[in-house]
From TrEMBL:
Gene Ontology CC: one annotated term: plasma membrane
Topology relative to the membrane: Multi-pass membrane protein
Database matches in Pfam families: IspA
Signal peptide: none
Transmembrane found in the keyword field: yes
Official protein name in the record: Inner membrane-spanning protein YciB
Subcellular location: Cell inner membrane
Main location: membrane
Length: 200
């Protein structure tokens, strides 16, 4: 299947829509308890049970429309299925809360392994979006690696020390804002090590 371009709006809707739906559903159901098969499930678990198939479906549609999924998208949806499924199966919200930690540790570990080999594996994922010279890629990869480990630590602190509601807000808005701000602060690096069309 060949890679195909789709509208940025549709792509964003498929990637972010399930997360927004999870947040809205959680706000609506957070204070409710559901008796299913003789077992009581709180709103968070029920919303998680709905989020997993919605995320899988959205990722499947994205693959069907574009003919391509990044390794990051594949790993993310697999971890959502595994840890979301464990939370629902064991009726224990902690597994789903651990998921961002594992995602960031895995990505940080992969990038770190590449750095130890003197390679920027971030370049493989982002080269089409960010034209940089070799030195710039190495610097950016080091920064992203540290940033991913910091996000993993932040998620652990939040879910272990704060309420479920606080974690949902942190997951929905805090982590997203942190990623946005991080790349906004890399403007100097992009200017200094960016390549022109002639150099690319």
């Amino acid at each position: 299947m060949q890679n195909r371009e789709i509208s940025p709006f549709l792509k964003s809707a498929l990637e972010l829509g399930p997360v927004v739906a999870f947040f809205v559903a959680y706000l609506l159901l957070k204070d409710r308890t559901f008796d299913i098969g003789g077992t009581a499930y709180d709103g968070f678990i029920v919303v998680t049970a709905g989020f997993v198939p919605v995320m899988v479906a959205a990722t499947g549609v994205l693959w069907w429309l574009t003919g391509h999924l990044s390794r990051m998208q594949v790993v993310t949806v697999v971890l959502i299925v595994v840890f979301g499924g464990l939370s629902v199966w064991l009726n224990d919200e902690r597994f789903f809360k651990m998921k961002p930690t594992l995602i960031y540790l895995i990505f940080g570990g992969i990038l770190g392994a590449g750095l130890l080999r003197g390679q920027s594996w971030l370049r493989v994922v982002m080269e089409g979006m960010v034209p940089l010279r070799d030195e710039g890629w190495m610097i950016l990869t080091k920064r992203v690696t540290v940033f991913f480990f910091a996000l993993a630590l932040a998620n652990e602190i939040v879910w272990r020390t704060m309420s479920t509601e606080a974690w949902v807000y942190f997951k929905t808005f805090g982590l997203t804002a942190a990623l946005f701000l991080f790349f906004m602060t890399q403007g100097g690096l992009f200017q200094r090590y960016g390549t022109s069309d002639d150099e690319a």
